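Annex B. Sample input.
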Amino acid sequence: MLYRYKSRGALSQLRRSMVRNTGLYLMSLPVVIYFIIFSYLPMYGVQIAFRNYSLTEGITTSPWVGIDHLRVFYQSYYFGRLIKNTLFLSVYSLLVSIPAPIILALMFQEVKHKKLRSVLQAISYAPNFFSTVVACGMIVMFLAPNTGVIPTLLEALGVKLNSSILTNKDTFRHIYVWSGIWQSVGWSSLIYTAAISGIPTDQYEAAAIEGASHLQQIIHITLPNLAPTITILTILAMGGVMSVGYEKVYLLQNDLNLETSEVISTYVFKTGLLNKKPRYSFSAMVGLFNSVVNLILLSSVNLLSRRISETSLW
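Annex B, continued. Sample output.
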């Protein structure tokens, strides 16, 4: 009875909230519809991962094979390399992409001229609006062996290149990560810039009166106030550790750097669509495995953050 009473009370409270905030609910309706159509309804097709899917037989009538495809992936020759490359690129990207926008936002705060600061910010986040294809085209053009700006500059400085930078398996990871920073750091810094602007100025004034240096104010005032924002963004980033976007990797990939550039997403793309005999079920299972690992990482980091700092997504 108590449960029913609480349920009725929650429903009546929800109704009152919907009547009182009708405009807000209507504004959120397109977002809800979008996720229902493109995120929840496609979950019906996840069962392909557990079947030997055939286009002629359809989803529900294809034979059920359980986790056989996952066993094949685990026992395959490429499993270790794919996991290693995916984790290396993701962790490398996280280690650079988390502090980089914070540092840039702090640097912007040191520019006192507002117009100059606005121009610098606009220049920094402009690459974010480049499509992946355009960005990769620029990278290839800049790194071209004979005509590229960067090889030409390195040769002018006396650095001899034995091979093309793009075909070198050891440099691929650095190109992927730092080009990603170039493309996203400015846009990401806007979040921290907004958070810094919300810090009360009286905290800095009190610290200055106490004799704190500018660096001490950043360490003891700015960074602690940014801690919740940093925590939330780090948790969200951890949810995509295993999901290295295949578009950029695939566009920068070639036969010579394949040893370090082949990741789970490109492997799924190739086996699922580019293969002469597309392995839809196998690709679906690998993708599902990827998503499950991401969910476990996200939940674990969120739980750890809630226990340590009391800041979490849920």
